[in-house]
Design a protein that fits this description.
By secondary structure, the protein is α/β, with parallel strands linked by helices. It contains 6 helices and 7 strands. It starts with a strand and ends with a helix.
């Protein structure tokens, strides 16, 4: 039996697409559902074109028993992956799937994390503070933004010529290289553990 991955995303879904592509021919796992709080999110079209089920919801349904939680219980995910998902995951969902919700953050946590720190906001802060490196952090999700236990980090150097756009491109390269592999490792460890 393949492991079941559910992806939560709010936007264009480049990370989601990368994960979907990675597991297309995998014997280990498959993406079975893409969930979004944004009915206009490009990630929904990406999932649809791959024949992956989608589910959209209004924000208040995230913390209701008969909302997102009900769909997740029906889907029975082995791992819930936040890939550009901007809402805080409520305790209700975390309690239902302990140790099974992970996120990717476009910086080296604990720096540049917390509410409102996503995408270009992170890259701008990194540049404004003249950091010499940035990177990605893949971490377990808890009830606080970007404070769950770190699973994996990767770094990339920055130069004085980098701006938020070039920084974003460097970070995206790391995300696409490492995120699917870390997901696979987690699911493999679970199988062998």
């Amino acid at each position: 039996m393949k492991k079941r991955i559910v992806i939560f995303a709010s936007g264009s879904g480049t990370n989601a697409q990368n994960i979907i592509n990675y597991f297309k021919s995998s014997s280990i796992a498959e993406v079975v559902l893409v969930v979004s709080n944004n009915e206009k999110a490009e990630v929904l079209q990406r999932a649809g074109s791959e024949n992956i089920k989608t589910y959209t919801f209004k924000k208040e349904m995230l913390s209701k028993e008969n909302g997102v939680l009900r769909i997740l219980k029906e889907t029975k995910p082995d791992l819930i992956v936040l890939a550009g998902f901007l809402l805080k995951v409520p305790r209700l969902l975390l309690n239902a799937f302990p140790g099974k919700v992970i996120n990717i953050h476009p910086a080296l946590l604990p720096k540049y994390g917390g509410k409102g720190m996503y995408g270009q906001h992170v890259h701008r802060a990194v540049i404004d503070n003249r950091e010499t490196e940035t990177g990605i952090t893949i971490h377990f999700v808890n009830e606080h933004y970007d404070e769950g236990a770190v699973i994996f980090q990767a770094t990339t150097p920055l130069t004085a010529k980098d701006d938020p756009e070039t920084t974003a491109a460097k970070v995206r390269t790391l995300e696409h290289r490492h995120f699917p592999e870390v997901i696979e490792q987690l699911l493999t460890a679970e199988t062998n553990g």
